[in-house]
Design brief:
Blueprint lengths: L18 E3 L5 H17 L1 H5 L3 E4 L4 E5 L2 E5 L2 H11 L4 E5 L8 H9 L6 E3 L2 H15 L3 H11 L9
Parallel strand pairs: 1-2
Antiparallel strand pairs: 2-6, 3-4, 3-5
Length: 160
């Protein structure tokens, strides 16, 4: 970014005014996003305050029916689409990661400024990411155990 880090940070030296975090749409990508947002919050908070940090939203599925492709960003959205278009003669591709897309698909869905979806990271988002990171990676076991007990029931696609 050109603006330094920590005590040397100077936002006026930023060479770019849009930093886009682009990770896989799965749980591993969410983990990496949390790590990066925590890093920016702890060491370059002014980038977030200035509105320079964004998160790309890559699709989780490509649904093809006939010659028509639809990109879907969640399992809920996939179910809604299938109810609308029907389940017959449908090809569903789940993207494990960005590397499974061909260059044209990646450009169309995640990189093309005219068609991509990016979300601006707010200070509240970064504070939440930092708290989650601290809870999951910290020295205290009890909050981590409570989190796992409360959320284990929602796990659908566990990468083992």
């Amino acid at each position: 970014m050109g603006c330094g880090i920590g005590e040397d940070f100077d936002i006026s030296k930023a060479r770019y005014h849009k930093l886009i975090i682009m990770t896989d749409a799965d749980v591993d990508g969410a983990h990496i996003r949390t790590l990066l947002m925590t890093f920016f919050y702890r060491h370059m908070k002014e980038l977030i305050k200035a509105g320079y940090v964004y998160v790309a939203q890559p699709p989780l599925f490509r649904v093809r029916k006939g010659k028509h492709d639809s990109y879907v960003y969640s399992e809920h959205e996939l179910e809604e689409l299938l109810k609308r278009i029907g389940y017959d003669h449908v090809n569903i591709q789940r993207y494990k990661g960005l590397g499974e897309m061909n260059p044209e698909q990646l450009w169309e869905t995640t990189m093309d400024p005219d068609t991509r979806t990016v979300l601006q990271v707010t200070l509240e988002d970064a504070i939440e990411a930092d708290a989650t990171f601290s809870m999951l990676m910290g020295d205290r076991v009890e909050p981590r155990r409570d989190f796992i007990h409360e959320n284990a029931q929602y796990v659908r696609n566990l990468d083992i």
